[in-house]
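Hello forum,

I keep getting stuck at the same step: I have a sequence, I want structure tokens, and every attempt I make locally crashes halfway through. Rather than fight my setup again tonight, could one of you with a working pipeline run this one for me? It's a single chain of 235 residues.
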Amino acid sequence: MAYTTRREGRPLGEVETWIFDLDNTLYPASSGLFQQVQDRMNAFIRDRLALSPEAAAELRRTYFLRHGTTLRGLMLEESIDPHEFLAFVHEIDLAGVPPDPALVAAIRALSGRKIVHTNGSVRHAERLLGHLGLAESFSGIVDIVAAEFDPKPALAGYRLLLRRHAVDPNGALMVEDIARNLAPAAELGMTTAWMRNDHDWAAIDADGDYIHHVVDDLAGFLAAAAVLQNREQRS
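Reply #2:
Ran it on my machine without issues. Output:
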């Protein structure tokens, strides 16, 4: 089954704006792309702070859990230049991310705007959307720079997205692989969908009552939503 519904939010056929996380959401975690990003984070930390590979990897994880992103921790505790960090860690090979024609078709079939909300950079998002064949489907990207490096789940970025794109949160649905990042979306009135995965750090608080849908197959979930939209428009 593509998804399960835990509680009612905005009916899928009435969603007006679709907000998507990027990494491990619009492509499968099994592609190993985020592992490349993590490896480059480790290398950056190792070289900049003169740490062993093991200590660098542990610091990356510690800062992620403590601050929401490794970058935020490096900024606050090590005074690292965030632009330099982002430029380095996002120089990755996208060849391992497989094409997903079913997802492309499902997103194209959806009525309403589609916006990316990412703790990465605009350049990283644009590269990935282009690689996936989704660039033309999205009308906006709100990245970590726009949020002044205050990462999800901090409310600032969500509020910025609503203002910048004139989004009514009650008509919006957010899809995200890190469960705790959906709490602010629900607080603001959005319907939420958690992309189920096996990463322990992504599943923290996945049993929260702020999650409306649990998604196992994003293409299937969105295709079902598009069918419901069509029915709503014909009625």
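The longest strand covers residues 113-117. If your local run keeps crashing, start a new thread with the error log.
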